[in-house]
Amino acid sequence: MKYEVEDGTIKHDWDEYLILAMKAMNNINMRRITWFLCKHEGEWYYPMDLKPEKEFDEYFRNDSLLDYLKERIRQLELSLEEADKLRAKLRVLQGEHNNLKGHYYERQVLLGFIKSIIDRASGLTEGISVTDFSYKLSFFLETGKEIDIVLEGEKVVIMAECKNYAPENIYNITQKMVEAFVEKARHLAKERFQQKELRLGYFSKHGFEDKLKPVLDRYGIFFSS
Length: 225
Hints:
The protein is an alpha/beta fold. It is about 50% helix and about 15% strand. The chain has a five-stranded mixed β-sheet with strand order 1-2-3-4-5, sandwiched between helices. Helix 3 packs antiparallel against helix 4 (about 80-100) and helix 3 runs parallel beside helix 5. It is globular, with a radius of gyration of 23 Å.
């Protein structure tokens, strides 16, 4: 009888261990699947391609930006009304940021924009107030012609294109693509933001070919990887 109890206890403990192990594995696998699908959105792939990659954990590293922004809100000297407005914007962004459907990199860039606004940094976001901005992701002009990020301040509107190509595919970012972005950004600015200064940004997760950088300079585009 003693051995039966011990065997039963061992079996119970083993079953609990297996359940916990499976939950941990499922959590890791779900993160891997999410990352893979976001990275390869719009591409053909085979199930055997879904395997661990060293960049996986790095893909989620900028989640901490949201925590940073929340902490900075507490440090800013804002009225209660202004702080509530900013918190409301970040609550919306928190939900969108967690809804990973192929737009994760755009949200990374947008979080960087908001961080620079809060930090009163110079450059692309200079002159935009911490409580006076609105943003849109995937701003559609018409079918097939969208702008990844539109960030609007009182006197400035920023339009940004975001490319998340793998390093071996950055050659796909061409002068023609840049010029198409400039054209649709100027069209949108003329149509909806006539009284505001237009600033353009072009972001590539893994950089650009050197030959493209003079093209970005020619159009006054702020670019970064």
